[in-house]
């Protein structure tokens, strides 16, 4: 399969490029900002994810001959624009929130600075990545909170687009998950891969005992056996008979999980398999996980609700021009005035302030470039923007496995610094307010 | 970017392969079936989409040396299994519902027949594709119904994963949409691409008039101008001044669309631009579209709610082993008995019956292979299963642009053959029942 990031893009980015190359506006310096006007209903915070993937794709943001021919043949752009695109390389600057950082309405999650032409081409891809990945990471974070110290694992690949599944696995790691069933994600991002067997494995064998024996012969006694294909009590008995009390774990994928987990725990303990763990995996979301707090469960496998953002399958992030050069070459804040979609003009700075070591406010500061340059945050305000790309040079520390692990750690730390309400599953307002100041 | 379909897969498919290659069960002939136990709440029908993409990826379902090294290094499979995988090629048979076909609970949407080993490896990918693509096509179909004769266009790419966006554009075409903003989908599937300019295009110019003039210079008078960046009334006046009454169209992306469309229509007519069309694009779903029925709107651009399945971002399709060879080489229906997830054993036939030219029942028939071979449907029952792959040979008529257009036509026809209730947006039961008969 051939995926060209540069064409994973709405047509109007190219028609705007074409028109502005013609009239010169393509060369105007611009600042675009990604933000959301609201969190999903009742959510207290969001978790940024996907920025590292944007950097990966920025490196591949070139058009092949076939792509260029397509743009020309369909008359999407002129011959001159095709020429311009042949050597396209983003030469601007990108800064933004770290992956794993909490975000709120109007947080300037990403800022893209460059010419109008180059910034415009990136819009669709940036939004696709941030909107989906952050939706998954935000849901993951709530699930991980509900699970307390018990690990959550991504098993959702089959319930989302096959490539989205790879991104979801990565985003779930940012959001606090500890492993994924998805092999592509495990390979590409160095994530821990998990999984043993499905019901069909039991069914293809002549008996459950044959299936368990086969799995143990292949994966060892430390494996996790799926015990709900026929009768759970019988399956647990068979499992311990075949594997011995050193059986690694059992998995339950149906029924009343709290009741079943308790019964299976009792049975395992009575059989001497006191160290055998119990994994549950039946249509879990953060609420179901919270309801299992007192059940003897050791880990959670989450599918559908993880990869679909637990009711919020996309964030409402937008990519808006907030500042641009005018015809005299002076940078000028701009904003549209559309009813219900108005924007705050000007590039933003972003800080978080703390009281008693807990966050109490997100500060978004905008103004002319001179005023921003002169602005000094108050003591203790944390600067939320990091530099991802400077004049076209990508900072590679934000890509790859280590960056994901850093984001995973950062999420836990940043969440712990929010008021405790952030960890509530009750619907409510964003846990801290965002104060926007125009200098 | 490198996407290996064979690794866009849950790890347990490989560990099951490994264990069954060791004990011989990998070679047992099997039938797996894809179906859903329920439609999303209140939906009257679903629309199948994605099968052509499965065929595309089946052609690429090979493991690279790097993939094989990964499986070996992580000890996911044994050395013998790596050898087996080196030459992997699916040699089985796949049949199922056509793309664009209506489906209901328990419809056998896809049947995969082959050895346990080869069928197992396909599970995750098949479900990812069908679950997402069908969710989008099902939502699209409701929107198209609500829009009646007005065209619906996909503009949702930025609100879903960047590769999912390409699949969503394709699925929306199956579901009845007439064009997409997504260039990758337009290139790969030969779809009509649409789009002209965003708010940033107006903002980057010194005035709205400059922006409109630039767009017309580049795209001609027949282009669609976005008129809600500042003041809509002024923008429409400027638009007609700059383009003349032969202006192609205007787009409104915010505010109360019904009221605005009426005012803009009046203004355009008064300015003599009676042929200028009005496109609206502000967070539409099927209900919003239905509410605009009497507004003078010419086409709809749909984003978020299309690519997230309008409240149902995934189908609940599963892939279940329903029949397999036993140790004597005889095919045997099998089924798990898990509480709340039990399945009907045996391969299925599927028919739709009609009364007065309208569908009245979905008939799902299962039983031993001999009984199925002897089964004769009643007069007028339509056989719903087509052959996609026979003994590893893909029927290419189900791939590519023509297949999508055929599916687009088929959806319209199949929907028209359902009781009219199918076109209602009111919540309710599936519009026809599914009768399962075990012979």
TrEMBL record, chains A, B:
Pathway given in the UniProt record: Cofactor biosynthesis; NAD(+) biosynthesis; nicotinate D-ribonucleotide from nicotinate: step 1/1
Gene Ontology CC: cytosol
Gene3D superfamilies attached to this UniProt entry: Aldolase class I, nicotinate phosphoribosyltransferase
SUPFAM superfamilies, A to Z: Nicotinate/Quinolinate PRTase C-terminal domain-like (SSF51690), Nicotinate/Quinolinate PRTase N-terminal domain-like (SSF54675)
GO terms, biological process: NAD+ biosynthetic process via the salvage pathway
Record keywords, A-Z: Glycosyltransferase, Ligase, Phosphoprotein, Pyridine nucleotide biosynthesis, Transferase
PTM characteristics: Transiently phosphorylated on a His residue during the reaction cycle. Phosphorylation strongly increases the affinity for substrates and increases the rate of nicotinate D-ribonucleotide production. Dephosphorylation regenerates the low-affinity form of the enzyme, leading to product release.
EC number of this enzyme: 6.3.4.21
Keyword Transferase recorded: yes
Pfam assignment, any one: NAPRTase_N
Function, in words: Catalyzes the first step in the biosynthesis of NAD from nicotinic acid, the ATP-dependent synthesis of beta-nicotinate D-ribonucleotide from nicotinate and 5-phospho-D-ribose 1-phosphate.
Homology family: Belongs to the NAPRTase family.
PANTHER family for the chain: NICOTINATE PHOSPHORIBOSYLTRANSFERASE, NICOTINATE PHOSPHORIBOSYLTRANSFERASE PNCB1
Name of the protein this chain belongs to: Nicotinate phosphoribosyltransferase
Organism field: Bifidobacterium samirii
